Protein 1
Amino acid sequence: MMAKIKRQDIVKYIFKIRLNFENAYPTRSDEEFDLLVESWFDILKEYPKEICDCAVNNALKNAKFALRIGNITEEVESLIN
């Protein structure tokens, strides 16, 4: 059985993207960051953690611009199919 994704995984993904793209996801408050994490979690929570981890890394490997949630879900779907 594959592990479920947790909110802390989402935080890690966002920080990973921020480290690679310095202007990615500038949030002005903790509330904005929490909302960003919540929105990503709502979208990714049905997918296994291992696939999401791989999808983020694959998307980063080929990214020329900061990743958006759509880039991640496209990569997830590609890995599943």
Protein 2
Amino acid sequence: MDEELKRMRWASRRGMLELDLILGPFMDTRYAQLADDDRARYRALMACEDQDLFAWLMRREVPQEPELAAIIGEILAFLHA
């Protein structure tokens, strides 16, 4: 799990400060507590483009893939908790 956390922390460092301010705290606080399915969804999310992530996390768009929409929901719930 430690190696996975390191890889996901690195993957969560994006090219946009706004994304770093959302994904960094989520990684530090919630990632290790996620179920295996949600961790797999997060890994898939990290393969997406920054512009898509930004649009989804700012609620300007919704991912078409239900799996990505589910993890975006988790991140947004964390963000607004």
Protein 3
Amino acid sequence: MRHHIQKEEALAHLAAEFIHTESNRQSLITVTRAYLTPDERRADIYFTVLPSEQEEAVETFLKRKRTEFRDFIKHHTNFRVLPTVDFMLDRGEKNRQELEELSK
């Protein structure tokens, strides 16, 4: 279990590094977490975007870069199984931030 969590954390870190080098920096993209299925064949990378008007453009950009990110994982890890990756907007984090703003 601990090893699985370490892999998820490594994927989140690698995704942040990859996005930092590949993005045009017109918006702030933050990787909030990574989810790796128990069989380690699929990974979801969750992110948030500021300003929020750029969410759709960033999501399209990241989905277009999935294959390149998978190659990036291959060259920066020693995973036995290379997961299929998808990028997903972290709506839970966005909702949490809105609730926090309302409670002030």
